[in-house]
Amino acid sequence: LYWIVISPPNLPPTISLRGGSGWERGTGPGVHRQVLMTTLGFCLGYYIKRYSNYYYAERDRELFSYIKHHPEDFVEKGTLVGNAF
């Protein structure tokens, strides 16, 4: 039996501004950024949601207080049973 060895074509080296071939980095270096951005997004979302809940609760409290103290402005009319349109 004769084995034919086929050598891969000569490819130019990859260019990196930091030096090296680019194959040395692997997949690990980007993970810390993803974890950081996920944590940052979670924290921002938490505080934005907390503020919006406070804002709407404060607004509802003021509106219900106004309705409670001025019932003459909010008199219920008859319900629309047959005259819906």
Automatic annotation (TrEMBL):
Main location class: mitochondrion
Membrane disposition: Single-pass membrane protein
Species this chain originates from: Laticauda laticaudata (Blue-ringed sea krait)
Membrane-traversing stretches: none
Compartment(s) where it occurs, according to its Swiss-Prot or TrEMBL record: Mitochondrion inner membrane
Leader sequence residues: none
Alphabetical GO biological process terms: mitochondrial electron transport, NADH to ubiquinone
Domain of life: Eukaryota
Family indicated by similarity: Belongs to the complex I NDUFC2 subunit family.
Keywords, ordered alphabetically: Electron transport, Membrane, Mitochondrion, Mitochondrion inner membrane, Respiratory chain, Transmembrane, Transmembrane helix, Transport
Database matches in PANTHER family: NADH DEHYDROGENASE [UBIQUINONE] 1 SUBUNIT C2-RELATED, NADH-UBIQUINONE OXIDOREDUCTASE SUBUNIT B14.5B
The name this protein goes by in its record: NADH dehydrogenase [ubiquinone] 1 subunit C2
Gene Ontology CC annotations of this record: mitochondrial inner membrane
